[in-house]
């Protein structure tokens, strides 16, 4: 039985490396280079525990679902589960590598991630007021009046400051290609935070031109 166990384990690991060696090597190299800046790595079992087996769903996107969770220290989090076999893992690497480098009041904080075989997840700070989209595209006048013109202006300025930080304030410039109301999240004080860095690109600060292949962002 012991021999069979190790044979199975070896076969599983071989399959994992055979299917996805490039993303694994890229992720490990990125974590090594970032050192203390790297967000915490969790197992898929940890993710299931913190979400209570994905009990409360917050939303759904093309990438997969977002679930409400809680860390051991009591902090609430939003857990973004990426669909299996979704692309080649490029968006996952982009998000961990880019948002993991940031520290700004208008950028959502990436607290951790999970990369275990085909299981991928991103653990973010929880934003109790959800996305800006629901406050803009709604026929409910009470929701619209909840913010008001002055607050909308502050949110717009906050988003602009977040983008300025990404483009000019980081040691490594981060180009953001998909800004829209749905990815602007609001905390308890309606402070806006830019999220969803799957389409972002790292760019050397001195570079004035970056090559892009294919369409970016949302049609």
UniProtKB/TrEMBL annotation:
InterPro entries in the cross-refs: Kinase-like_dom_sf, LRK10/LRL21-25-like, Prot_kinase_dom, Protein_kinase_ATP_BS, Ser-Thr/Tyr_kinase_cat_dom
Record EC number: 2.7.11.1
Enzyme class name: transferase
Residues forming coiled coils: none
Pfam entry (one): PK_Tyr_Ser-Thr
Domain Protein kinase: 52-219
Compartments reported by the entry: Membrane
Organism domain of life: Eukaryota
Glycoprotein among keywords: yes
Catalytic activity as recorded in UniProt: L-seryl-[protein] + ATP = O-phospho-L-seryl-[protein] + ADP + H(+); L-threonyl-[protein] + ATP = O-phospho-L-threonyl-[protein] + ADP + H(+)
Assigned GO CC terms: membrane
Residue numbers binding ATP: 80
GO MF terms held by the record: ATP binding; protein serine/threonine kinase activity
Membrane topology recorded in Swiss-Prot or TrEMBL: Single-pass type I membrane protein
Keyword terms of this UniProt record: ATP-binding, Glycoprotein, Kinase, Membrane, Nucleotide-binding, Serine/threonine-protein kinase, Signal, Transferase, Transmembrane, Transmembrane helix
PANTHER family, A to Z: RUST RESISTANCE KINASE LR10-RELATED
The protein's name in its UniProt record: non-specific serine/threonine protein kinase
The species this protein was found in: Cinchona calisaya
